[in-house]
Each structure stands twice: as C-alpha cells, then as structure tokens.
Amino acid sequence: MHLSLQDLSMSPPDKLTREELEQKVAEADALAEMKSNFLATMSHEIRTPMQTIYGILELIADERPQPHIAEMIQTAQNASSGLLEILDDVLDLAKMDADKMELDTFEVPVRLLVRGLLEALSVKVHSVDIELIDDIEQDVPFVVVGDPKRLRQIIMNLCGNALKFTHKGSVTVHVSTNVEHIGRPEDGVGLRFEVIDTGIGMSQEVCDKLFTSFTQADNSTSRRYGGTGLGLSISKKLVELMDGKIGVESAEGKGSTFWFEIPTREVGTDDSTVDLPSLDGISVISVEDHPQGAKEIVNSLRSMGATVESCPTYKEGLELIQRRPFDVAVIDQGLPDGLGLDLIKEATKIRPNMGLMMYTVRDDAGLSHSLRALGAKYLTKPASRAGLGEAVRDTANKTDRLEIDGPTKMLIAEDTESVRNILSLQLNKLGLEADFVEDGIAALQALKSGEYGILISDLHMPKIDGYELVEKIREEEKDTGQHFPVIALTADVQMAQRDTYLKYGFDEYLLKPVSLGQFRRLLIRWGLLSTDSDQTDDEQTAAPPPSSDEGLPPAIDREAMIEQLGTFDDSTIEMLGMFVEMTEPQIAEIKEALAARDMHDLKELGHSLKGAARSACCPVLGDHAAALQNEAEAGNDVSGIVADIEKEFERVRTEVSALKS
C-alpha cells in the first residue's frame, strides 16, 4: 500500500520537516514494492517445482496403477492443486498491494456465471444435506459490462467460504438490482450479489475483522476448517477496484449473508462492447452437456462466422472427431459419461493437428497444467463472447496441416457450369487444381482411378444425384474397411444439420454460396492446403458501387462476391457475364415448363437456378428461384413467381452490362 505525504503529515509539524516527510513516503513506497516483489518471487519459485510434482503425479496416474495407488496419487494431486490455488491468492495480493492489479472490461452473462459457478461447486459438496440454489431476479440484465474472471473469483470465494461453514441446509446465490450501499449509476445499473448460507454464523466482533488479510474468525476456526484467510481480503480489494462495496450480516447459529454491490451497465443482446473476431470458415466441435451452455457457445461462435457442431456426451464427441477433422474442439470437463481431459487425450491421438481447448467452470491450477502439457488451451466459464471467439481463433491459428498418406487430388461433382466457374476461380486464387465432373456416374467412374483423395459433390445432379452417389461409395467401402471423405455441396440449409449430412453418409458440408474463407479452411482441415498459403482475406479489393434501384436490394451483392472470390476485378465481371449467358436459356426453359404446367421440370429448374444465382451472388434471383422450387413441389400456381424471375433476371443482365461498359 502506498503512503502519501498527507498520511504522514498527521505527525507534529515541528518534529518533521517537509524533506523528512518526503523521505519517509519514499521509504514506505520502497518497502511496499520490496514486499510485493518478494511475494511474487516466492510464489513463482514455489509454483515451478509444484507444477513439476503435479506433472509427475499425472504421468504415474497414466500408467493405470492399482486402485489403492491411484487413490494416493489423487490425494497428492488434490493437495498440489490446492497449494497452487493458494499461490495464486498470494500473487493476487502482491499485485494489489503494489497497485498493479488491473481489471478487464468484457461482457458478463450473469445467469451463466452464477449457474456455472454452482455447477463447479457441486463436485465439492460431499454432504447430501446441502443444496446449492441460484436465485436471480427477473429485472437483472442478461449481459453486463465487467471482468468475468474477477467477478467469478469473488463469488467463488464467498461461496467456498459459505460451504466451509455449512453442514446442512443450503447455500444460495441471490442477484438483484436492489442496491443499498452504492449509488445507482447514470445510464447504468447497480447489481447486488448475496451469498446466503444456513451455517454456523458469526458474532459481530468476528464480522468486523473478517476482511483483513491472513485473518480467520478465531484460532479454533483456523485449526478446524483450515484456509489462509486470503479469499475474503482479496474479494474486498477486487470489489473496491470495481467501485463497489462488500460486507457481511450474520448471527451465531443463524447463518450468514455475504453481499457485495457493484455499478455496471447492461449490454443489449445484439450489441458488443468490443470488436468481435472473425471466425469465418473455422469448423468447431463443442462438447457440452448443459443445454443452455451449449446453446450459448453455438450462438456466440456462429455469430462470428464459425460453423459449429454441438454434442452433449464424451461418446458422441469421440465419434465425431473420429469421423471428420475440425479446426478446434471446445470441450467441457464434466461430461455425463467421462472427463473432458480424457477426451482431449484421445483427440490428440486421433487428430494431432486439431486445435484443442477446454472451456469449463472449474478453475483448477492442476488441470490447467495438465492441459498445457497436452498443448491445449484452458478457458474458464463464463468468458465474454469476444473472449471465447479470440480463444477459438488463436487455437485455430496454431493448427498445422493434416498429414495424409494417400492421394490429395480433389474431384468436384457439379452439374451447373456457372457454379463450376466460381469454384475454379476460388481454387485458382488458392493455388490449387481440381478435376470436375457433371454427374454422379462420371464421379464414380473417376474415383475408380484411385488418384483422388476427396470428393466434393452437389446434391441434385442428372443420372445419379449426390445422395445416391455417396450411398454407392459407402456401400463399396463395407468390403474394404476404408473411408473416403465426401463433402456435400448444397444450398439447402437443412443439410447443415449434423444429423442430416451424417445420416446420408457425408462427412461435412459446404453451403452455397461458398465464401473463399470457408473453402480455404475446409481444404486446410482435410490436408489439401497448408496454413501458410496466401491469406486471401487480407487482399480484398473494393467493389464498384451498385447501380441504384429504389426500394430493391442490389441485383448483385458485390460485398458477398468479394468475400467469395477475394476480389472484384475483370475476371469477376467476366464470370458474371458467363452466368448471364448460361442462365438465359434456363429462363426460356422455365417459361416453357410453365406453359406445359410441368411441375417436375419447374421444381428441378428452380433448384438449379437457385444454386447458380446464389453462387453468382444474385440474392434476389436466388430467392425467387427457391420459391419456384418449393411452390412447384407443392403443386401450387407459380406463374407470378416466374414473372418475378424474368423481371429480376433482366435487372441482373442490366447490372452486368453496366459493369462491362
């Protein structure tokens, strides 16, 4: 703690000159700095050998010793982990004394924070007579601004303290906006957190000295319950750093209520306090059994551009990892049928190039050490949306190219010429080549050569479609025991569901229109492209402004075209010109099918135009084509939709002509 000149000026002025006062202030500051440095050095010097001890214990446990030996190892690991937690407290105290503790500003999902904490504490509740309860009032915002790690630390300290002195009954975390000891901030909200227990309670004399460093209630308490007395002191300092207040209300034999109040402000569900990272094309598997937590992870990562598969069990996660590569696996520790740490160990053997991250409510120094030894990232819940996204991005960026033994040449089955042109342009941009076929029979014939390592297949093709194609491939594999990767190329968002694409035999999917980032990440995952290839996302060229059409979206989405091809240049305009030339006879066929009332042809033509238009970044034309496909399949009148298609196609043609000129 730093002293000021004002603090020392209380001494009689005739005894100390100003120079002497200044010298004493400097000496006091130097002493505080020396103490802080000593605590930090001591913490570091003890932590290093303790982590080695923990690592050796873990290696012994991996040898699967006899049960009584395994039990002793677990006891030693728990003791090591407990000591590492104490060292963290000492280091925090040193930082605070030296005024070096800084708070982060992120988004804090209040309900997830509290419920996740109680979930983590449930494993420490050995008595069946203690119930953990969350009680969050309805007017408490879902997301607020704050430091999730430090807020979690405060509540965890208070809850841990409550559990230590409660033998039966309950420990409740109550959150409300009814602040009593701080002012309500302008344009913000005050939150009051209360940890209420039915434990042994305390006298007022004990309450008055509880928040002092290294202080327990009394000597008998220290001997019976253990602990350093640092948790409450650190909590008080953290709350004060947040401009809040903390206190306790208790009576002997009647339990205790520890409370703290902090000013904050609400974050809207569509807002963010920071810039969110781009996860475009990054494929993530999330293994999380808590439904609300799983939903939060999926929605957060998808909002940043990632494709996410979520499953609730160890078994399902292992099966998915065996089936296909992911850029990143985000795994919880407490799964209903196993431990996340064990799943990560298995994943490192199956997919050594996949990024691994544990996202758990457990704040365990020993577990953190184990994960670092495996090369996995450790993130405690709840992280902010930005914090989770940055962790996934950083983990994905550290992944290496997948090494595969067989051929790496790519075969693409796609019957629409304009889509083939776009995929060719993307591959050229990435420095890769592929062979193209126009139907399933040609694809089967080509695969017999043995020169291909992966197939990307459209679903709707003549002769044999993508569904029948992958079915035949899987049928032939039953005799060989091999598994050939097949990626679905589709404009149908339903195929993005894991249950759907796996059911049909596909390993993954690419959703039309395929962005360059998505294509690039997929090729890296499957070992066809190295991670140090051209970072095309940084080389984008600005598109010319669209022509004005009052009240209508642009006929050509130029920003989407840049995302898809990495640029908007002469080759892009040439490709759009080819799309118009190839689509013109298709429009004529649609009109002929309408005159003949041939609903089957109208459905098929609508599907083909939908994929081509969306791949050419003509969103309105693609939507009209999708409507034609759906309504024709239902047998409804589509004459109005066909008229809309004709009109929109003319808009696209006019736009392309303007670009050419």
CATH-defined topology of the largest domain: Heat Shock Protein 90
Number of domains: 5
Approximate strand percentage: 15-25%
| Spatial ordering of strands, largest sheet | 2-4-5-7-6
Helix content: 40-55%
Q: Radius of gyration in whole Å, from Cα?
A: 31 Å
CATH architecture of the largest domain: 2-Layer Sandwich
Distance between the termini: 73 Å
Derived from helix and strand composition plus strand pairing, the structural class reads alpha/beta
The total count of strands amounts to 19
CATH C-level name of the largest domain? Alpha Beta
Q: What is the CATH homology-level superfamily of the largest domain?
A: Histidine kinase-like ATPase, C-terminal domain
Major sheet attributes: 5 strands, mixed
Gross geometry = elongated
Oligomer state of the chains in this structure = single chain
What features would you describe in this structure?
The protein is α/β, with parallel strands linked by helices and 661 residues long. The protein folds into five domains: 5-97, Helix Hairpins (Orthogonal Bundle), CATH 1.10.287; 106-264, 2-Layer Sandwich (Heat Shock Protein 90), CATH 3.30.565.10; 283-397, Rossmann fold (3-Layer(aba) Sandwich); 409-532, Response regulator (Rossmann fold); 558-660, Four Helix Bundle (Hemerythrin (Met), subunit A). Helices cover 50% and strands 15% of the residues. A five-stranded mixed β-sheet has the order 2-4-5-7-6, covered by helices on one side. Helix 22 (619-633) packs antiparallel against helix 23 (639-660). The radius of gyration is 31 Å and the shape is elongated.
